[in-house]
Amino acid sequence: MRAISSISFSGQLEDKITAAAENGFDAIELFREDIIGFEGTPDDIGPFAREAGIKILSLQSLRDFEGLTGAARTEALARAEKFLDLAQRIGAEMLILCANTRADSNAAGALEDLRLLADMAASRGLKVGYEALASSRQITSVTAAYEAVKAVGRANFGLVIGTVHLFASASGSLEDALATLREIEPKDIFLVHLADTPTTRIDPALIAASFRLFPGQGTLPVAALYSQLVVQGFEGPLSIETFNDQIRSLPATRIAEDAMRAFHLLEETHARGAHPRSDVQAPGLVEFTAQGEDADDFIRLFTALGFAKTHENGAVSLWRQGQITLALNTAARGLAHSIYLVQGASVSGVGLVVNDMPLMLDRIGRFHGEAVELAEPYGLARLRGPGGSVLFLQPEAFTPGSEFTATGAKPGDGLTHIDHVAQALQPNLFLSGLLFYRATFDLRAHELRDVLDPHGTVHSRTLVNDSAAFRMSLNASFGAGTTTQRFLGKSGFAPFHHIALASDEIFGLAAKMEPQDLLSVPANYYEDLALRFDLAPDFIARLREGNLMYDRDERGTYLQLYTRAINGFFFEVVERRGYTGMGAANAPVRMLAQLREIEAEEALHLL
Amino acid sequence: MRAISSISFSGQLEDKITAAAENGFDAIELFREDIIGFEGTPDDIGPFAREAGIKILSLQSLRDFEGLTGAARTEALARAEKFLDLAQRIGAEMLILCANTRADSNAAGALEDLRLLADMAASRGLKVGYEALASSRQITSVTAAYEAVKAVGRANFGLVIGTVHLFASASGSLEDALATLREIEPKDIFLVHLADTPTTRIDPALIAASFRLFPGQGTLPVAALYSQLVVQGFEGPLSIETFNDQIRSLPATRIAEDAMRAFHLLEETHARGAHPRSDVQAPGLVEFTAQGEDADDFIRLFTALGFAKTHENGAVSLWRQGQITLALNTAARGLAHSIYLVQGASVSGVGLVVNDMPLMLDRIGRFHGEAVELAEPYGLARLRGPGGSVLFLQPEAFTPGSEFTATGAKPGDGLTHIDHVAQALQPNLFLSGLLFYRATFDLRAHELRDVLDPHGTVHSRTLVNDSAAFRMSLNASFGAGTTTQRFLGKSGFAPFHHIALASDEIFGLAAKMEPQDLLSVPANYYEDLALRFDLAPDFIARLREGNLMYDRDERGTYLQLYTRAINGFFFEVVERRGYTGMGAANAPVRMLAQLREIEAEEALHLL
């Protein structure tokens, strides 16, 4: 059973219930605090949910109940009675009980209290789910909570397991977490709370409070736990319970969509071996939308990079080189033009090469059911990605159809293929976008990396597929002055920020390009290179001459060249000699150089 | 000597050097990466800084140098040579060396390498400062680094201490940190890096990388370390070295101003006993700017709350009750009107009661030298606070001068004084505003608290003075949909979000007020109260009747009533019966109720 907790959502309770129901959840857990925001009485919630088509799984959460003495115990029992009343009124199946965190709670008497609660619940037809917290006084681990559940010995008293807490109890070891699960009878588990975390380098209590993500958005192997539960025969409810400011700043519907996508990704990962999948390759086609002078600017840049105009179809021209096709769409209608109207000259679509189209379309349908449309004049399937960006699905290297007229020009050669693409997202869409790409195209996400922009920090995650044939980076930043955020300031949707083209002879290309088409690398960069790497002075001189940047990892070296920007978008040319990264060490220098360009341009606008 | 590291700043190196010099810093440390962004050659940096009037203290940082063998050692020595060359070229006094983090570094040979480096530096007239890192392989603590410094035994080889690292080494214990310092000869300390942290619940390495604040902005007792260093006779350079996205999103000049304010606060805290200070009391005067219908709205609300118009002076009317004066300024000129033009009807000034005006003006001059102006028609000093907000300084309870004509009306009674004020700030100004209030008015800051808004999280810190006579909360949020951020969307500056008025008979006031002047509390709030507290049903019924909220802490109880909002601003009336908090538990419910109001209002605007 796929469930979600109301705490994962933004908005009012009505929005939360409706969004969960409409996105296919079977059940919702209700935080006590969320009931306050319901317009009707608590008794109206059950019928409202039934009407929406969703069950009320639980009331969250009775706290600080068991193991107290004297007046505190009397108060706790009275409070428990009220919570059970409320659970019954809202039509929940179960009351969640968090293990007592009070300093004056004892192990002695706790079992008796738990049995009493179970019996009070049973008389109302309710179950009780018992959950250990890191901050609990006696019951701090899943194992301890399970011991208590067995000792209580009531059929309506069971275990609640949270994935974040399970990992923290296991000190981050997947093996230990799986071993803990294996010791537990599936029938004793009443509920599993699913959440991921961005890092394990934060105190577990702080993660619990502020840094919980949907499975797949963080770095915990939640999928492995999910698989283990399935293998053990667990058939009870799994509920996504997150707490995160970025997630909660989205509308409830979007949150529910993403949460359901996270479920599907868990299920697909579990069934991974069972059915065949389609892989993706490096993008082959990139469409640009532009008008007037901006269109001329793109043509100048395409030409400078060695692309030749091989085909035309009305307002759409194709510029080809190696496996790359750049389409320049200057039509005054259609989706590309809509994008132009909103954000000016920009990328209006990126085409991913899909190995097996029917399998991929099936996967897309499964993951987010977004309609795939036909993109003309290319005759390709089109999908809308994060922030409204446009993705084409190419069955193979793009070949212009008969609707295009050949110009007779030969494609350029030098650049071979697209190395990677970079997309910028508003910070509140970062996690959502990450999940979109992971789920849709079966990508793995590297750990979060922070890149220093002169005016803030750009958060970046690299996504790759197993074959490393497809690479992209997703970037977001909170600072309004960063190059990423300035680009987004101009860009309503489709925010592909730059595209990296692969070359086998970057020095030759650099020698041919005019300085005004290149981003000017600060001279002191080359002084700094000499400090960082043991490079021959004449090699550094050649780099400087070509405005090239350099990086190295344990596998090889990397050469980079950046073009000037058009409305914030730019190309990168890279020559990869065994190197596996994306040149992140050079990104701050690139941002600094672009900042100078932006400021020079802004100064001109003031004239 | 007051210094700052270039990593603390945003922008290009030229901006950083200039901002540091103009704000009174004696010296700046240069991160290697920042040199890349300098327009001239490295040799031009020294003259540029001299011209600006500031010294180059150090080059940061040589890493992974000592204790290597074979080719790695040869490479490290060549690299060290280049770093020393660069330090000399930029005119630095010192090269910072971070203790080796490489897995293949050994204790054996390390001392010899350090001596060699010291001698290489000495031949260039340079010093070397040695700093332990949490991630270092052999030298992980300040004490270990100090042992190494003594063992090296070179006059130009000394210790670099970082406050964040010192606390982490001492497992957060101030006593242990001070004990570590006491063991160190001041002459052996070449440099102290000052930084604070928001929480100690994050891995030290992560704090070092992303969560360093200016002293006074976080929760570490940096001032106690500072005092100890002064007492021990340390006279060497102290340098603020932070790394934080919020700070770096501000302009370099603002960063330098705040950093210098942090220095002054450390110095003032150290000298605390030595010179007398002025305390502040609860605000007495609040000025509102409004025109037309909004002015009528305020008058209606003032009247509903029991204020009477006692004085007039042209377009300014005074509404008084207890120790509170509300001024309504409808003039079409002056600062209040400027504020009206930018953000509409709003608070245009809050008057703090100052016990000793000359002492306070002296303190203000010392801390930020901001010009204090005369605010007419009140005859009060006026200071500009965070986000451009306006603060009046009242010498005592405000008494209208002869420029005001008495209306003959008697002041209201019921409300006694202002309990607290709440200010909303854009997230990148949150830390800066916190430091402003702490420094200017000698306030203490409680720990950060996160309040759940229906559409995100509101970060809140409470500021109080020793006598608890003055209380305020500062609030910020990243989510665009939170009530705080929606308010700021309307509010260019002077963003006082609400003002809490103290009452001794809140039930009486609630009974007199019309429902349309009050924020309507959701009915289920009272259901929830019955769950949380053991309250008599008829007491809950009285709360519900009055639209009152309730909270309790170990010291007493708290009753709250909220008015409707005018352009996002609202009053709160509180009755405090021993309770010391600010009713944070009720804030999410208030935000939810306001969200409904906002949405209803927005729906009307669409008609």
TrEMBL record, chains A, B:
Keyword annotations from UniProtKB, A to Z: Dioxygenase, Oxidoreductase, Pyruvate
The UniProt GO MF terms for this protein read: dioxygenase activity
Mind telling me which Gene3D superfamilies this protein's record contains?
2,3-Dihydroxybiphenyl 1,2-Dioxygenase, domain 1, Divalent-metal-dependent TIM barrel enzymes
Record-annotated Xylose isomerase-like TIM barrel domain positions: 18-262
InterPro entries xref list: Glyas_Bleomycin-R_OHBP_Dase (IPR029068), IolE/XylAMocC-like (IPR050312), Xyl_isomerase-like_sf (IPR036237), Xyl_isomerase-like_TIM-brl (IPR013022)
Signal peptide range: none
Name of the molecule in the record: 4-hydroxyphenylpyruvate dioxygenase
